[in-house]
């Protein structure tokens, strides 16, 4: 980008300084993975002030589904990927508590179960492998349910999100909605490391050759801020990430992005090691929150009501 005046330089620097604040998490659902922590010291949009979790209480019949040793300990360790609103982010900097839809839902489930959460921030791509080692009891990060993940991970669903695309505002290289991957041929796509987005793009890379077109290139980033910065600087043409995250990002004028619509929906859930004894209790807790209205209030707070589910499921088949 050619910058001809000092004033323009300063405006450009200010715009780039805002990028980490608006960065989104690279969901692992191929839709919902929050890849990469927010930039240190960054402040994002203020969190809504209502607190639907405050009124949630322990439900004895649901708490009874937890293993006896867990009930006795009274705590669960959660590996939490903190990235961008509305899923999970730092509205007041990384030295303060995170906020977001995933934070509220996990906290509400814990209250129904009568346990406390020991939240440990972790990068998105490290959480699923760490479940098997016992480092965490469960993970959150907008993890999408895929056939490949179901081989080693158990899921308890709490929302459906999915995969979408966004471009820099004013970019006309793509039409209003991407419906087929060959539309991306010849472009450079940025996405998050370890996400279903990366897996989808890698697995389908041959579609361009089949269509007689130049292949698309995939750039993988470990932090969402880096992905957005790359888009604004023209190093990538399009971002592939979560539907809810990209839609939120595009609603923030400083991001300078345009959301290109939903590409593929996926169920999103709490993640557990295979064979975890916690899944039935978590499923019952989510269903309790749906029944008593807390679930709807949480989604309304974060503007994600369109992603609501009617009931939680354990290990559903990947949506096609």
UniProtKB/TrEMBL annotation:
Alphabetical list of Gene3D superfamilies matching this protein: Periplasmic binding protein-like II
Residues in Solute-binding protein family 3/N-terminal domain copies: 75-306
Entry keyword set: Signal
SUPFAM superfamilies linked: Periplasmic binding protein-like II
UniProt keyword Mitochondrion, yes or no: no
Membrane spanning residue stretches: none
Domain of life: Bacteria
Signal peptide: 1-25
Protein name in the entry: ABC transporter substrate-binding protein
Organism: Streptomyces viridochromogenes
């Amino acid at each position: 980008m050619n910058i001809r005046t000092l004033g323009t330089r300063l405006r450009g620097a200010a715009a780039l300084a805002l990028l980490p604040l608006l960065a989104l998490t690279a969901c692992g659902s191929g839709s919902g993975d929050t890849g990469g922590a927010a930039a240190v010291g960054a402040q994002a949009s203020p969190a809504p002030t209502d607190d639907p979790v405050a009124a949630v209480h322990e439900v004895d019949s649901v708490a009874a589904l937890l293993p006896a040793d867990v009930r006795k300990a009274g705590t669960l360790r959660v590996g939490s990927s903190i990235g961008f609103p509305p899923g999970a982010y730092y509205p007041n900097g990384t030295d303060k508590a995170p906020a977001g839809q995933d934070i509220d839902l996990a906290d509400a489930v814990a209250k129904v179960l009568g346990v406390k959460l020991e939240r440990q921030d972790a990068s998105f791509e490290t959480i699923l492998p760490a479940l098997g080692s016992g480092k965490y009891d469960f993970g959150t990060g907008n993890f999408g349910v895929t056939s490949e993940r179901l081989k080693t991970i158990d899921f308890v669903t709490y929302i459906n999100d999915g995969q979408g695309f966004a471009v820099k505002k004013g970019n006309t290289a793509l039409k209003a909605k991407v419906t087929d991957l060959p539309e991306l041929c010849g472009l450079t796509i940025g996405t998050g490391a370890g996400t279903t987005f990366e897996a989808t793009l890698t697995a389908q890379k041959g579609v361009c050759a089949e269509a007689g077109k130049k292949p698309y290139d995939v750039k993988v980033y470990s932090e969402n801020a880096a992905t957005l910065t790359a888009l604004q600087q023209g190093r990538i043409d399009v971002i592939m990430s979560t539907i809810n995250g990209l839609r939120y990002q595009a609603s923030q004028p400083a991001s300078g992005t345009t959301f290109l619509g939903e590409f593929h929906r996926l169920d999103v859930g709490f993640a557990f090691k295979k064979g975890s004894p916690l899944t039935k209790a978590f499923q019952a807790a989510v269903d309790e929150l749906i029944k008593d209205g807390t679930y709807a209030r949480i989604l309304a707070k974060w503007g994600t009501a369109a992603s609501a589910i009617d009931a939680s499921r354990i290990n559903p088949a990947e949506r096609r």
